[in-house]
Structure of tryptophan synthase:
Amino acid sequence: MNTMLDFASRQLIETGQMVHARSLCPLIMAGDPTLDVTRKILQSCVDLGVGMVELCVPFKNAFTDGETLIKAHNRALEHGATLEPVIDMASEFTDRIKIVLLADSSHTLRPYGFEAVCKMACDAGMAGILPHGLPPKMTSSFQNAAFGYIPTVGTIYSNATPDTRRRVLEQASAFIYLVSAYGRSGGASKAGDLSNQIDALRSKTDLPIAIGFGLKTKADVRRAFQSGCDIAIVGSAISGVVEQAIEEDQDPADAAARFIASLNREATR
């Protein structure tokens, strides 16, 4: 028995981080366009009572991302948003809001080492870690490295096979991320009615269930919650608002805060 993980799991439960309550989860690109702007956006999320944030460490060659997020990655990388300063910034907020770290396999996890990244996220007080682009053959190694440090997010595509679903459900410990549409994030898609899939997952796990990919508007978030999910993840739309504000010489932090506030109302209805 791993007492470190047992203690971490008890902390999550005691602090309400594994309670099944509706929660908006904005995907925020760390360092886009600067870490100071990201810091302001995170503070706005705290002030708004947003339940959870997915904080992405920017990376190159984001093959699953659409044009909007690719631009966000590039803006952040141009301003030096690497793992260490991103985690340092996040640590300022983890006692006030749940932050899940999104880290790419090729750009972050493998260069730094699985265990090193997981320990850094744990020490910063993060609520979970979501690996991106992790080859299936490395999944077990990553899970073993995370064990004892930080809960992991399990990703399931809506067209996943029963064996894949079973394997992800066995390994995940933070929440289940049900991808509502396969393709590039930010692409044209509809959340769809995933009620049956959510019900099926609930019969197999007690973990919260998130829906993401294709959620851009208040209506999308509303439909996601109506489908029965606990967490609605909105990704490229946040970066799109930041990009538009930059182009219009407006404050990107204020623009993002207003947009997130409008989405968060659907979680508190």
